[in-house]
Design brief:
The chain is α/β, with parallel strands linked by helices. The protein has helices spanning about 5-40, 50-65, 80-85, 100-105, 155-170, 170-175, 185-195, 205, 240-250, 255-260, and strands at about 40-45, 70-75, 95, 115-120, 125-130, 150, 180, 200-205, 215-220, 230-235, 265. It folds into 2 domains: about 40-120 and about 230-265, D-Maltodextrin-Binding Protein, domain 2, CATH 3.40.190.10; about 125-220, D-Maltodextrin-Binding Protein, domain 2 (3-Layer(aba) Sandwich).
């Protein structure tokens, strides 16, 4: 065979092999793209007091049942989350620790009001460090505390309830200069657990997450006018509306509510 024929044959062979490789690579890339597109991420904005229930139980439970769905949780005070949502936060579901923040977002037409439901209820409790060195026993003993941790009433629902309770117990004015105000209820809990505060007011569910604090009293029922309700709803501009709707439905099932109850919440009446 002449040299130019050998060269031509080799060139054709290389082009053919290259084409096959390109075709296989393209198919692999397409398959990878399809796999990526099959995954749906639901962005959850939830009150800090809900973090343990979601991260330890509910999210793994849901992702196991729906393996093409991923839940990304952001946890903070409901007031801070409200502000972030107003500023364009990428969220599909908002789970608040108070009705005020939810109601305001509904008025601003940022929440699908038809999807909103009061799902859970919590209680406000008075805690001390585990050793309770000040030997506090109830709300009246707060006069013996040097530092009292509460959530900032400007943005933290637990702080708003604390202010309401202490005001109705005629304690707020006399204790005001002893308050150390946290940005969310988890920070308040940690301050007391670390002995940085002699006492603090948190939700009952938060107190149950650690052995480093002791619950010494519950806020008297008549000191907090309304039940501490946790409403949940879908955002009006959710980028994954159908998936978010399914997740919201899941949160209302008996098995999901049972998980919340295991963490100290009660089902709202």
């Amino acid at each position: 065979m002449k040299k130019w024929q050998i060269g031509l044959t080799a060139a054709v062979g290389l082009i053919f092999l290259g084409g096959c490789a390109s075709s296989d690579g393209s198919q692999n890339a397409t398959a990878a793209t399809t796999d990526d597109e099959a995954d749906t991420t639901i962005n959850l904005a939830a009150a800090a007091s809900l973090e343990y229930a979601f991260e330890e139980e509910l999210i793994p439970m849901y992702e196991k049942e729906y393996d093409n769905v991923k839940i990304e949780g952001t946890y903070d005070s409901s007031g801070n989350l409200q502000t972030q949502i107003e500023q364009g936060m990428d969220a599909d579901i908002f789970f608040s620790a108070a009705t005020q923040q939810m109601d305001e977002l509904i008025e601003e037409e940022l929440i699908d009001k038809d999807s909103e439901i009061d799902l859970l209820e919590n209680k406000l409790v008075l805690i001390t460090p585990a050793d309770n060195s000040k030997e506090l026993e109830d709300f009246a003993d707060l006069k013996n505390a040097d530092t009292i941790a509460i959530g900032d009433p400007e943005s933290v629902p637990a702080g708003q309830y604390a202010q309401e309770s202490l005001t109705n117990l005629d304690l707020w004015d006399s204790l005001e200069d002893r308050f150390s105000m946290g940005t969310n209820v988890t920070q308040v809990l940690n301050w007391v657990a670390e002995n940085s505060a002699d006492a603090g007011l948190v939700y009952e569910t938060d107190a149950k997450t650690t052995d480093d604090v002791t619950v010494i009293d519950k806020a008297p029922e008549d000191s907090v006018k309304d039940p501490i309700l946790y409403p949940v709803a879908q955002l009006e501009d959710s980028q994954n509306a159908e998936a978010a709707k399914e997740f919201l439905t899941f949160l209302q099932t008996d098995k999901a509510v049972k998980v919340f109850e295991d963490y100290g919440f009660t089902a709202a009446q």
